[in-house]
Amino acid sequence: MNAAGGRRPRQTRATEKKRLILEAAIMLMLDKGLASVTHRQVAHGAGVPVGSIGYYFNSRGELLLRAVEEIGARRQQKAAELIDAAAPASTAVLARDLVEIYSFGDSTRLLGWLGATVDCVRESEDLRLMLCQHRTQKVRDFRTYLEAAGRPEASAELLVMLIDGALVRSAVEGAIGSAAVDTAVEALVRELDG
């Protein structure tokens, strides 16, 4: 049926189903770890039959690559938004923006991303290489943001590493959610004010 009949075209439904599958894989990866990204769990999270996963993604490996690729695209979109709006601001504002760029705009899942990153490196060489590309782009985005915010002297590479370290510290100390964000922001403020 056409739009007048109330049914969406087949291609639209297929695109939506693929998006739901990808989103379910991302949420599982960030909330429960890479091991939870199984066809059955993804299908359950997406509300689709298990067979749909194999129809849209040739393998679990391909699904994971597309999920990490999507996270990278979201991070770049968030970076572009914050770079466009960047202006000289307090160190605390700069630090929070950098954490938002790092976390693809979902800072509550920072520790989940840390775990997923480690899992991805162990999972496959393709995922490891994709994460290397993401990290290189993240450093570039930090540098561009810092220049736009009037702080070109700050080391983008060092600030990315500070967030990495703050996340490890948060994980070890059991600081989750906003506490992990606060730990990362505090580390950045100390460096930027130092």
UniProtKB/TrEMBL annotation:
**What keywords are assigned to this protein?**
DNA-binding, Transcription, Transcription regulation
InterPro entries per record:
Homeodomain-like_sf, HTH-type_TetR-like_transc_reg, HTH_TetR, TetR_C_31
- A single Pfam family it belongs to is TetR_N
What is an example of a GO molecular function annotated in this UniProt entry? Answer: transcription cis-regulatory region binding
Where do transmembrane segments lie in this chain? none
Q: What range(s) does the HTH tetR-type domain occupy?
A: 15-75
**Annotation: DNA-binding region:** 38-57
What is the protein name for this chain?
Answer: HTH tetR-type domain-containing protein
Species in which this protein is naturally found: Corynebacterium yudongzhengii
